[in-house]
From TrEMBL:
GO cellular-component term (any): plasma membrane
Localization, UniProt: Cell membrane
Keyword annotations: Cell membrane, Membrane, Transmembrane, Transmembrane helix
UniProt-listed InterPro entries: ABC_transp_permease (IPR001851)
GO MF terms, alphabetically ordered: transmembrane transporter activity
Record-annotated membrane-spanning stretches: 7-32, 52-75, 87-105, 111-132, 144-163, 183-210, 239-257, 321-340
Lineage: Bacteria, Bacillati, Bacillota, Bacilli, Bacillales
Name of the protein in question: ABC transporter permease
Topology with respect to the bilayer: Multi-pass membrane protein
Pfam families in UniProt: BPD_transp_2
Length: 356
């Protein structure tokens, strides 16, 4: 009963945070716009007015699901990795290389091959900061942030000087992917590609991994109380390395799906911060794999609505970004209150560890 009440309170807190952020956003729109009705209609209704707009929301949602899931795995393991952006780039690179330079395959073989290549690329790149943390106690926040720069600049170098398509007309990108590796549309008339289905499957797989397997139990136990986990015989170092590697694999898969489903090629600057947006998606979902689907949809809906608002009224899409920033602030403030509550409980028990 207590657990159920805690879940209800959690949901209520999230809904209040969303409501407060939207309320402030609406106040700002009313204050700055000469056509507020058109702006609000575009922001909240236009994403549902056509198959194209709704399909665009689903397409925007896809990479956010992967980076959100990547953050869920590390956060539940107590590892504060910020490296989803770099892992996304490295997974996109390895997946794109398989999609571009391996011709003559059936789609039933080529697409799984691209997926495996991206999982390996992102997973190995994520494993490195995990190894540094587990063995040398390197701060994972700093190392993963630095690895983001390495990945983005390395991919940029390759696209500009080594692997650049000679027919790209000056743009830094790879040649287009083979037709057998491209993810097609799932519904005629909608732009949504098959990466949407892969994202749903990934959410279900991560849910079973985290809540129905021994590995997931170890990941969550280390995240809740590493000392307890160590006393219980769990190899915490192995769990830390594993969590960031799995996180990297998920982010890397998101990169390959974005390349083969959305762009058809790997181009410089394709991500626009998808790895960092995954942190917001994870926070909104309260670290739950299935919740990531809902929060990614809401986040993508705001982005598409913001674009429609900018096109149809005098309000810039930056208002949608302000709403997203407010969401982060409100959700983060809830986390701070929970942390302060835990500290109070811990001090009341004479400093004994308190399970989160």
């Amino acid at each position: 009963m207590k657990q159920r009440n805690a879940i209800y309170l959690d949901l209520l807190g999230i809904l209040l945070a969303i409501g407060a952020a939207l309320f402030i956003g609406i106040i700002v729109i009313l204050a700055i716009s000469n056509e507020p009705v058109a702006a609000l209609r575009s922001l909240f209704i236009d994403p549902f007015t056509s198959l194209f707009s709704f399909g665009s929301v689903l397409n925007r949602m896809v990479p956010l699901v992967f980076t959100g899931l990547a953050i869920v795995v590390v956060f539940q393991s107590g590892v504060f990795s910020m490296g989803a952006e770099g892992q996304l780039y490295m997974g996109a690179l390895t997946g794109a290389l398989a999609a571009v330079y391996i011709p003559g395959l059936s789609p039933w073989i080529h697409i799984p091959l691209v997926i495996i290549a991206s999982i390996i690329g992102g997973g190995l790149f994520g494993f490195i900061p995990g190894f540094l943390k587990a063995v040398f106690k390197a701060d994972e926040i700093v190392s993963t942030l630095m690895f983001n720069f390495i990945a983005v600049l390395f991919v940029s170098f390759l696209l500009n000087y080594v692997l650049k398509d000679p027919n790209s007309g000056g743009f830094a990108r790879l040649p287009y992917v083979q037709g057998s590796a491209k993810l097609g549309q799932i519904i005629p008339g909608m732009p949504t590609h098959a990466g949407f289905l892969i994202a749903i499957v990934a959410s279900i797989v991560v849910y079973f991994l985290m809540y129905k397997t021994k590995m997931g139990y170890e990941l969550r136990t280390v995240g809740k109380n590493p000392l307890f986990a160590e006393y219980g015989g769990i190899a915490t170092k192995k769990v830390i390395m594993l969590s960031i590697a799995i996180s990297g694999a998920l982010a890397g898969l998101g990169g390959a799906v974005e390349v083969t489903g959305m762009h058809g090629t790997l181009k410089e600057g394709f991500s626009v911060g998808l790895g960092f947006d995954g942190i917001i998606v994870c926070l909104l979902a309260r670290n739950h794999p299935i919740g990531v689907l809902l929060s990614a949809f809401f986040y993508a809906y705001l982005q598409v609505g913001g674009q429609a608002m900018q096109a149809n009224s005098d309000v810039p899409r930056d208002i949608a970004i302000i709403i997203q920033a407010l969401l982060v602030l409100f959700i983060s403030s809830q986390a701070i209150f929970a942390y302060l509550k835990q500290r109070k409980l811990r001090s009341a028990q004479g400093g004994a560890p308190v399970a989160k």
